[in-house]
Structures are given as structure tokens and as C-alpha cells.
């Protein structure tokens, strides 16, 4: 069975910030969405792999 990808807009709350009308991609099989670089460029994200931490800043 293959999943059909969907493009839609969503108001994701990320790190205490809501990003209204954001275009995301997802499918009916999963509970995750993919954010594009245009969205990520508005956020300060620190990934600490060894500590398994993700930090979001405004």
C-alpha cells in the first residue's frame, strides 16, 4: 500500500510560536508533516545530537 502525499496549509505551533497559513506536506499513513526551508528560516533551532535535545528560540 502506498501513501498519497497531500499539500495543505496549517497553523503549526512550533516552540511557542504559531506560524499561520504554513504550507506543509504529509500523508494519511503518518502523523508527521514536512516543513520547508522557507518556514525553518524564520526559526532559531539548535540540535544537540549527543544530548538528544532540540531547542527552539524566537
How would you explain this protein's 3D organization?
The structure is a single chain. The strands form three sheets. The chain has a three-stranded antiparallel sheet. Strands 2-3 form a two-stranded antiparallel ribbon. The chain is globular. It has one domain. The protein has about 60 residues and is mainly β. The protein has one helix and seven strands, in the order βββββαββ. The model has no long low-confidence stretch (mean pLDDT about 80).
In short:
By secondary structure, this protein is mainly β.
Cα shape? globular
Cα Rg: 13 Å
Distance between the termini: 40 Å
Q: Mean of residue pLDDT?
A: 78
Biggest pleated-sheet summary:
3 strands, antiparallel
Low-confidence blocks of residues: none
- Helical amount among residues, as a percent range? under 10%
Strand content: over 45%
Order of helices and strands: EEEEEHEE
Count of discrete domains:
1
Strand order of the largest sheet: 1-4-5
Helix count, DSSP H or I runs of 4 or more residues? 1
**Computed structural class:** mainly beta
Tally of strands: 7
